[in-house]
Prior knowledge:
The protein is an alpha/beta fold. The protein has a single domain, classed as 3-Layer(aba) Sandwich (Rossmann fold), CATH 3.40.50.720. The protein contains eight helices and seven strands, in the order E-H-E-H-E-H-E-H-E-H-E-H-H-H-E. It has a seven-stranded parallel β-sheet, with helices on both faces. 2-hydroxyethylsulfonic acid binds next to loops. NADPH dihydro-nicotinamide-adenine-dinucleotide phosphate (NDP) binds next to helix 1, helix 4 and helix 6.
Amino acid sequence: MKTALITGATSGFGKAFALRLAKLGYRLIITGRRNNRLDELTNQLINEYSTEVLPLSFDVRDKEACKNSIDSIPEHFKNIDLLVNNAGLAAGAAPFDESLDNDFERMIDTNIKGLLYITKLIVPGMIERKSGHIVNISSIAGIEVYPNGGVYCATKHAVNAITKGLRLDLVKHGIKVSSISPGMVETEFSLVRYHGDEQKAKAVYKGIIPLNAEDIADALEFIITRPLHVSINEIQVNPSQQANTYITHRKLTE
Ligand code: NDP
Ligand code: 8X3
């Protein structure tokens, strides 16, 4: 039985990944800050799939908490075959001069530094076992830059550079490194970005059928079910109505 660790499993993609990996027979370590959500998902995974599951609650921005949490993993769960670096967010959508420093820090500390902390803690075991797969959740924002989102885009460009760098450094150890770069997916992402403003969050998807978390779980499943000699380096996936970060064909009825 393979073991996977998913960061940010309390919502959106991470939750869908957990359910999909459970269906595929993985033993799971699920992480996030919201304890109640972790407990709910743990129960669901056990009830629906009889999954062996270890919930770990910590903030990926806290380097020491990352270390303590990973160190606390019991022997039975320690051989992590698949790391899904998914925890992340956009905070704010405003011109650079109007953006909040605090938003910059949240994005950089979570999307870049958090991903690095976790990866650094998991990679040594993979190197020792000479196998493993890291899947980083990037974004179309890692490929293009759009107005009012420069810092979020910068963090996802960084994720892409880190992914490529890891692939170069880890190929000799038999470790695969992949990324998924989605366009618009309706999760709690926009609610978080707009600091809880539901109207602004809903407006993002007005007139389009956005992707959903299941669509991204499909991409993950494709990546991790290829034969050992095949590495899917990157998947970029958009809603059919989204051509790039700023051209969307919205069908408005009012
Ligand atoms: P959600 O807001 O639904 O989920 C984000 C997850 O990340 C939650 O489980 C949250 O858990 C976790 N998280 C956020 N900050 C922290 C933190 N500091 N420490 C630990 N966990 C954290 O968004 P999505 O599922 O949409 O986003 C998942 C990833 O996909 C992100 O990296 C995002 O940038 C990326 N993405 C999203 C797209 C979209 O349109 N939705 C498109 C492209 C990429 P908790 O709050 O419990 O800590
Ligand atoms: C989230 C998708 O288009 O808001 O990464 O950048 S987008």
